[in-house]
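Before the break, one more example. Copy the sequence into your notebook; we will annotate it together after we see the structure.
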Amino acid sequence: EQPTVPEHRLRRFYALRTLGFTLLEMRQRQEAIDAFEDALQTIKKLSSDQPREPKFLRLMANHLSMMAQQLGGQAEPSLRQDRWSEVIDAYSRLIELEPNKLAHRLKRGRAYQANGDHDQAQQDFDEYLRPFDQGVEVSPGQWQTRNRRGIELLKLERYAEAADDFAKAAELAPSRRLIYRNWASSLWPQEQWQQAADVLGEAVELDLTLAGWRERYELALCALAAGDIERYRDVCDLMLTISANVNDRLQMNFAAWTSVLADRGIDEYEVAVDLTTKAVSSQAENEQFLNTLGAALYRAGRYDEALILLTELTYRQSQPDHIENSSPAYC
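Here is what the structure looks like once it is written out:
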């Protein structure tokens, strides 16, 4: 059965987008932009042929937004402004078609902000937050409403207000581990590392099983950022103790990686070498595991072995088709 014209154009749109992203990974930026432009013209045609169909308009708006971001600072200001104006127009039309979809307000607000129109952006952000504000007003004693509004404030980069909501949610439901993680994520952008470490410490105390590895790792990072070496060492010791008693390769890798991030994380770095060697034995091509092993070898003073391994990894990561995969420690 032959595809219809809309189906054919939709397939072409997705194929061109995929090509564009592939070219970006290969660092062929101009060719990628050309592919994205072809995809844009394809989805524009679909949307103009069916102006009351929000699906195509949503695709066009999201694609335009992605292209505006890809232009970044490498395009003329007038060209960037024109592109963001198209994004704003597309989301304005979507708001007319789907007035109850809050995400359109958020995305249009971000487009206004990127285009330098901060007053219009604030109006959209206020409208976007309205139902979450109402939720808190109606049910001030429910932790869920505070936590939910805090998450939405994070999206708007209103970190201090988000932290206040998460703090209140933690008062209302002190045994909810998720709240502490959310709270900490509102403190990092404010560089409140000690408070973030204290908050994550509460989360760690709530779960000493495998499921709590992420909070332990983030606690270690915050302790380091706060200059609290003793706390960092305590977290490393806890992570190594837990991982030594399980057969979870990811857990082993994160425990070892955390302990080698900074000097004096542990007393005997051979423990980290042994742990990561076990992880690598099951996934010999896993670059994260190999990178951890290289760092552990370095900390253990086995410099020749570390140099050989890390040199090979550096070569792999320099290849055009290599996909970046970074740790939060570098963010």
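The first helix runs from residue 5 to 25. The two ends are 50 Å apart (CA to CA). Try to locate both features in your own notes.
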